[in-house]
Amino acid sequence: MAIVRRRPTLSWPWFFEDWELPETIEQQNMDIYETEDAVVVEAPVPGIEKENIDITIEEGVIRIKAEKEEKTEEEEEGKEYHARRSKRSYYYQAALPSRGEWDNAEAEVKDGMVTVRVPKAEEVKPKKIEVK
Asked: According to DSSP H, which parts of the chain are helical?
């Protein structure tokens, strides 16, 4: 009888070889809810200014990417004495629950939370029907 080696399905190199996520990304929960007129997405991005936030909506999928890079230096007589670098990244992606007017979406950042409002398309808004 021959001994046949087989590779387990969840071995370390095979399992992660197709992943392309940078090591610095932190994924947290984001909230998605609907109101009568819009779909609202809220995602935490603490300490990141609006200039460093990119939001895209493509075919009903929203992507929020936020990055902040800091470098702290202490110099003594023109020589670098101490330097500290840090980078923080957030990445969120989700399919939106209904069709919306993607071109009319609005976003704002307040208190470390990015809020995106996507108006619903007229055909998906609730309609009141008069009873005769």
From this structure: 12-16
Is the Cβ–Cβ distance between 45 and 110 less than 8 Å? no
State the Cα–Cα distance between residues 132 and 1, nearest whole angstrom. 83
User: Which amino acid does the sequence have at 17?
Assistant: E
pTM of the full structure: 0.65
The DSSP line for 23-52 is TTEE----EEEE-SSEEEEEEE-TT--GGG
Burial class (CB in 10 A: 0-12, 13-18, 19+), 104: exposed
What is the distance between the alpha carbons of residues 69 and 86, in angstroms, rounded to a whole number? 6
- Tens digits of per-residue pLDDT, 64-93? 999 988 877 776 666 666 667 778 888 999
Q: 6 pLDDT band (50/70/90 cuts)?
A: very low
